[in-house]
Amino acid sequence: MSLDRVKIIDIPKITDVRGNLSVIENDVVPFDVKRVYYLYDVPSGTHRGGHAHKKLYQLLIAISGSFNVVLKDSSGNTKVVTLNKPNTGLLIPNMVWRELEDFSSGAICLVVASEVYEESDYIRDFDRFLLMDK
């Protein structure tokens, strides 16, 4: 599957003198939300991710700080997206390999997922991923 299915999603931002508010509802996320989790206190030089999903879609948001998302498809294409704004998300569809790296100090990555955790949905071996997506 191609990386052109990966999309940047603008999350509505409401601004007033008290600060900003962003809302994630079903008109923002193109799937029913079944799980939400977040990554934080990621040590410098550490990578997260390193897998693909058979059916799960994810929306990644840098709630605080920044990090890079390295995306790969089975054709050998690679795309790097830097997330650094809390009102911008990265929609990663199924069958796209992802690795998260270069977390800034204090970075928080919010993940909104289309499915609950199911280990059998994960593809954790890159060579197996390349074979599955043919």
Structural account:
A hairpin with a 5-residue loop joins strand 7 and strand 8. The chain is mainly beta and about 130 residues long. It is globular. It has 1 helix and 12 strands. The protein has a 5-stranded antiparallel β-sheet, with no helix packed on it. A 5-stranded antiparallel β-sheet has the order 8-7-10-5-12. The mean pLDDT is about 95. The protein has a single domain (about 5-130), classed as Jelly Rolls (Sandwich), CATH 2.60.120.10.
Descriptive key words:
134 residues, mainly beta, Jelly Rolls, 1 helix
Question: What's the SSE blueprint?
Answer:
Elements: E1 7-10, E2 13-16, E3 19-22, E4 35-40, E5 48-53, E6 58-64, E7 67-72, E8 78-83, E9 88-92, E10 97-101, E11 108-113, E12 122-123, H1 126-132
Antiparallel strand pairs: 1-9, 2-3, 4-11, 5-10, 5-12, 6-9, 6-11, 7-8, 7-10
Distance between the termini: 8 Å
Structural class: mainly beta
Count of discrete domains:
1
Q: What's the total count of β strands?
A: 12
CATH architecture: Sandwich
CATH topology: Jelly Rolls
Return the string of H and E elements: EEEEEEEEEEEEH
Largest sheet at a glance? 5 strands, antiparallel
Overall pLDDT level: 94
- Radius of gyration, Cα only, in angstroms? 15 Å
- Percentage of helical residues? under 10%
Mind telling me the CATH class? Answer: Mainly Beta
Strand content: over 45%
Q: Spatial order of the strands in the main sheet? A: 1-9-6-11-4
What's the CATH H-level homologous superfamily? Jelly Rolls
